[in-house]
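INTERNAL AUDIT FORM
Audit reference: QA-55
Scope: verify that the stored structure record matches its stored sequence.
Auditor: D.O.
Record contents follow.
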Amino acid sequence: MRPPAEAIGTLALIVGAIAVAIFIGVEGALVYAVWRYRTSRVSTPARFDRNTRLELAWTAAPALTLAVVFVLMLGTLRDIGAATDAQLRIRATGHQWWWEFDYSGIVTANEMHIPIDTAIDIELASVDVNHSFWVPELGGKTDMIPGQINHLRLLTRRPGVYLGQCAEFCGVEHAWMRIRVVAETKEDFDRWLATQGSPATASGDGARVFQSNTCVNCHAIRGTSARGEAGPDLTHVGGRATIAAGVLPSDAASIRAWLVDPQRYKPGAFMPRVPLSDADLDALASYLGSLR
């Protein structure tokens, strides 16, 4: 199986070359006609009506071109949807305005890790409005529709971080619904997944603040009593590169700023402002930042 991005890129190059050839041909014919039939050379404009051969030619040429592109597109779709058995399945769910990734019961948010050289089947779902999963460097864009499961096949051979975006307008914070895909070796991925499956180990005043306030109503942290599902799973939030689907880096200072006033950084987000003392804010931010 070829990586979908590679198949799409090859098709784009071929179609682009065809488009350039058509442009050169049309513009060349136009320049020739302007020169050949300029006023200084002819007094009576040339007429092309009832020229059966010419009419057949300019009908057949576009039809043939479209047929070629259509066949090439079918080949690309076949490559993308190749029957290779998926070696990993991930359920991606779109929320306003964040992403949930479920690895057969191991749940994380906004940052998706995948192993390289592995065929991955992503089940795409939405719990509220239409979203669209799009990571340009990895290939196709697929909609996420409430009540329907769509599928996207991914495969990459190069480790790295690939950035994406929700590509279907889904509300006021659509622009801050970023995707971060980390492609890594199978060994590194297995270690990451094992870490994600383990419960949180941090404790202290921050854990007390988290569990004694409204945080537990919306968020889950495995290993604690927090089982909320309205917001992102925070079990290992400190190990992610960003918070709030790409709005801020995931460090204690940024987490504290987010807790103080979420609407300042993501107006319209459903995260409420929870009144806490400075001491409690410091403890909670430090606690969340330590969850790795």
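Auditor finding: record pair retrieved intact. The domain at 4-80 is CATH 1.10.287 (Helix Hairpins).
Action required: none
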